[in-house]
Structures are given as structure tokens and as C-alpha cells.
């Protein structure tokens, strides 16, 4: 009966049965109370249930002292987790790991030694994964990646994962890239001189070698022309006044200088002043 005050007998039954009894026994002992009402009353009285009900209505109890003892013995003897799962048929792998942490059993993860950390610092930036695995036996790919992140190491060699790797840049390749870049050779031609290196890898390695960028700096005259002509001039006039500059380069430079274009070009090549369409007459719009 909803809204009925809880009697002292009902409260005594909740205190005695709520922690361990099944929901069937609880509902039978409290026939006038619903499942939700009993649960709310137990929470208000600060009582915690030691079990929970699965969706299939089968009851699963929390870890017993016997299960804890089996886990302690199995973990201390070095049994693998699948073998411990065979001894605890109702426990999954994640439940065993969580209970192990609750019981404060030592982790089986091997701590990184100073020698391993030094080898990782030395090999991780440029060595292949085969060399890293050979120098760090017993360490998996995710473990090496996580330890490198913690040590703030960056892999300079472009790799394609744990399977294959792309070789690091050799001194000979660095020399070819330096000479070709300083001589003004296009990147496409540099790719032919360095087979196996893509456009992106060459551009990225150029930065690591501190080679100068080929982007031409804007002169004071170009900036003055841009400030004067960009708001109201057409793109044809702008590109004619700024030879060697593309439309994207002009747009980017105008954005960095906070210049707004007040004119946009129509499909017929005529200039329209943005935001001032009300100034046009019907005849002009028809034309």
C-alpha cells in the first residue's frame, strides 16, 4: 500500500533481511511493499545489499571468503588467469582482475628497469620495431607505446604499426634532400631522387633538418597594395597587381590582416557590393 508508514516490525525485517536475503524472500516478508519501496527504504537506512540480481532473475552473490582464498592462492602461486577462471567458474576475467585490486594483490606487470628505460630512449626515435622488440624481450607493442608516452619520447621514423616499418632517414638521404632543396629543385623532382619517400615525408623531414621554407615573404609594397585593393577590387585586378600570388594566398594574408572584402564577383563577371543590394535599381538587377 503506497503512502503507508513503515512499522517498527517492517523496519526490523528490512534491517535483518535486506543485506543478504533474496528479493523473493524480501517481497514475501513484506507483502505490502514493492521492490522499489524496499530498495528506497534500505538506502535511506544506509544498508547495503551484498548481492544483486541478474536480468535472468538468477541470484549472484558477491565474493565469498572461499572465493577470495582461491584467488589469493592462485594469484600467489603464479597461476594464469584462465586457470583461476577454471577454479572460479562463475567469475569472469575482468571480475577477477577487479577483485585482485580490491584485495591489494600485487600486479603481475613487470616494472621497467633503468636499463630498459635507457634502451627505449636510445632506440625508440629511429630504430625499427624488430630492433626494439629484440632489445626489450617480454614487452608488448602497447606496453612500449605507453612507456614512450610517459617518457615523452617521439618516434622520428615513419612506421606503419607493429608489423612493418619504414626505414629512418639515412645520412645519404639527408644530403640529397639538403642539396636538392637549397638548389631550388621542385619537391616532385626530389621524390624521384629519393625513391620510397613521399611528398609528405619529404616536406616533414625538411622541417626536421631546419631547411628554409620556400614560401616567399610578403613585401611592404605587396601588403600596401593588398590593404588598398582587397576591399573593393575584383580578383582579376588583385591578381594582376600581385603577380606570383595565388588567390588562396591573397585570401589567407587578408584574413591575417583582418581585411574584409566588400565586393564579390557575380557569374557574369560584374562586381557586386556585398550588403548594399538595396542600392541597385530593378533595371540594374535585370541587366
Report on this model:
The protein has 287 residues and is mainly α. Among the domains are: 8-61, no CATH class; 65-102; 171-208; 220-286, no CATH class. The chain has helices at residues 8-17, 23-29, 35-44, 65-76, 81-87, 93-102, 114-123, 129-135, 141-150, 171-182, 187-193, 199-208, 220-229, 235-241, 247-256, 282-286, and strands at residues 51-53, 59-61, 263-265, 271-273. A two-stranded antiparallel sheet has the order 1-2. Strands 3-4 form a two-stranded antiparallel ribbon. Helix 4 (65-76) runs antiparallel to helix 5 (81-87). The model is unreliable at 52-59 and 267-287 (pLDDT under 50).
Compile the SSE list and pairings:
Elements: H1 8-17, H2 23-29, H3 35-44, E1 51-53, E2 59-61, H4 65-76, H5 81-87, H6 93-102, H7 114-123, H8 129-135, H9 141-150, H10 171-182, H11 187-193, H12 199-208, H13 220-229, H14 235-241, H15 247-256, E3 263-265, E4 271-273, H16 282-286
Antiparallel strand pairs: 1-2, 3-4
GO cellular component, one term: nucleus
Organism: marine sediment metagenome
Protein name: Myb-like domain-containing protein
Amino acid at each position: 500500500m503506497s503512502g503507508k508508514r513503515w512499522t517498527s516490525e517492517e523496519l526490523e525485517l528490512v534491517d535483518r533481511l535486506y543485506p543478504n536475503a533474496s528479493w523473493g524472500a524480501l517481497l514475501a516478508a513484506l507483502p505490502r511493499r514493492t521492490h522499489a519501496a524496499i530498495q528506497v527504504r534500505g538506502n535511506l537506512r544506509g544498508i547495503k545489499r551484498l548481492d544483486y540480481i541478474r536480468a535472468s532473475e538468477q541470484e549472484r552473490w558477491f565474493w565469498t571468503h572461499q572465493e577470495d582464498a582461491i584467488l589469493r592462492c592462485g594469484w600467489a602461486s603464479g597461476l594464469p588467469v584462465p586457470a583461476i577462471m577454471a577454479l572460479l567458474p562463475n567469475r569472469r576475467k575482468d571480475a577477477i582482475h577487479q577483485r585482485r585490486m580490491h584485495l591489494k594483490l600485487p600486479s603481475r606487470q613487470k616494472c621497467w628497469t633503468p636499463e630498459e628505460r635507457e634502451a627505449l630512449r636510445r632506440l625508440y626515435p629511429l630504430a625499427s620495431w624488430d630492433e626494439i622488440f629484440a632489445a626489450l624481450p617480454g614487452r608488448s607493442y602497447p606496453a612500449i607505446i605507453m612507456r614512450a608516452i610517459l617518457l615523452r619520447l617521439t618516434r622520428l621514423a615513419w612506421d606503419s604499426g607493429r608489423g612493418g616499418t619504414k626505414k629512418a632517414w639515412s645520412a645519404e638521404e639527408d644530403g640529397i634532400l639538403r642539396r636538392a632543396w637549397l638548389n631550388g629543385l621542385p619537391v616532385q623532382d626530389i621524390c624521384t631522387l629519393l625513391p620510397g619517400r613521399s611528398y609528405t615525408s619529404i616536406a616533414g623531414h625538411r622541417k626536421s633538418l631546419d631547411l628554409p621554407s620556400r614560401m616567399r615573404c610578403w613585401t611592404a609594397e605587396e601588403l600596401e597594395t593588398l590593404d588598398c585593393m582587397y576591399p573593393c577590387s575584383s580578383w582579376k585586378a588583385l591578381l594582376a597587381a600581385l603577380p606570383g600570388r595565388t588567390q588562396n594566398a591573397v585570401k589567407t594574408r587578408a584574413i591575417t590582416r583582418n581585411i574584409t572584402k566588400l565586393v564579390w564577383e557575380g557569374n557574369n563577371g560584374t562586381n557586386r557590393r556585398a550588403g548594399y543590394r538595396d542600392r541597385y535599381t530593378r533595371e540594374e538587377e535585370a541587366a
